[in-house]
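Exercise 4. Each item below gives a protein and its sequence. For each, produce the structure-token representation.

Item: GNAT family N-acetyltransferase (Streptomyces doebereineriae).
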Amino acid sequence: MPNIPVTTWSLEQTAPTDLLPAEPPQRDVRIHRAEVPSPEFSRYLYASVGGDIHWTDRLSWTYARWQEHLERPGVETWVAYDHGTPAGYVELAPQDDGVVEIAYFGLIPAFRGKRIGGHLLSYGAARAWDLADRWPGLTDTKRVWLHTCSKDGEHAMGNYQRRGFQLFDTKVEEETEAPTPGPWPGAYPA
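Answer:
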């Protein structure tokens, strides 16, 4: 398979006041924290959200690796439900010195374009800013950051910027082009 250039943009907020929340969607969308670490559920979300946009780095993780990651203090998964059905998620991962990464964020393809993404991102960023309130021993959040790339959905960068995230780094690297893994073979049209 040929190599393709992939641009990765890193964005940040450096104060809670940077967050510009989106309006909630005009549908029954609720966001809940998955409080019980569940490798099965987390892998389902990861594969279902990222299957059409080449999320592959965690597909080889063992059950034990998922469990270890999810049990790290401060790692949180917030799930958006549309009329009771999982629609997408945001995963928060604390780092050193009050830095919180929005490690993963996205919607299952069937729920994109329904005004859920901005609301979920707003909610997730707010939870990143108050993460230490739920995890005694963590440093108060001083910075929230994330990255997106040219393989992500066409509206990803705009959503991040509309929520108040500012670009701080850009990298271009060559990657081997590969078919989308999907949550299962043939799940998405080519």
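Check: The two ends are 16 Å apart (CA to CA).
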